């Protein structure tokens, strides 16, 4: 169940991030290319974080990785699996924070004129 919630949040965060990137792109091709790059990077980080034991990396590296939202999804699953009671909730809260930030960025970047004059 926790993995399902984490996976659903990863999908929402990725969608919000792609929407923010697409809203800032000048052309349809640019939006498509930027979205693909974001999606590929997100998948790489998420699956790498699931396969690597993040509890054994140095603290500086761990803190840097936690600036990437997809790391929190993997950490939520990992900390739940090892039986830490509160850590999964903190990582889910971090994912919700990233989701809110990316949605706000997407909404603020959206320009109605691009829908009419889209190249």
What tags apply to this protein structure?
mainly alpha, 0% strand, 6 helices
Task: Characterize the overall form.
Answer: elongated
Largest sheet: none
Supply the helix-strand structural class. mainly alpha
Stretches where pLDDT is under 50 for at least 5 consecutive residues are: none
What is the rounded distance between the termini? 43 Å
Order of helices and strands: HHHHHH
Strand content: under 5%
Quick one: how many beta strands? Answer: 0
Briefly say what this structure is.
The chain has six helices and no strands. The chain has helices at 2-24, 28-51, 59-65, 69-81, 87-109, 113-116. Helix 1 (2-24) runs antiparallel to helix 4 (69-81), helix 1 (2-24) runs parallel beside helix 5 (87-109) and helix 2 (28-51) packs parallel to helix 4.
Topology readout:
Blueprint: H1 2-24, H2 28-51, H3 59-65, H4 69-81, H5 87-109, H6 113-116
Describe this structure as you would to a colleague.
The protein is an all-alpha fold and 119 residues long. It contains six helices and no strands. Helix 1 (2-24) packs antiparallel against helix 2 (28-51), helix 1 (2-24) packs parallel to helix 5 and helix 2 packs parallel to helix 4 (69-81). The longest helix is centred in the N-terminal third of the chain and has 24 residues, at 28-51.
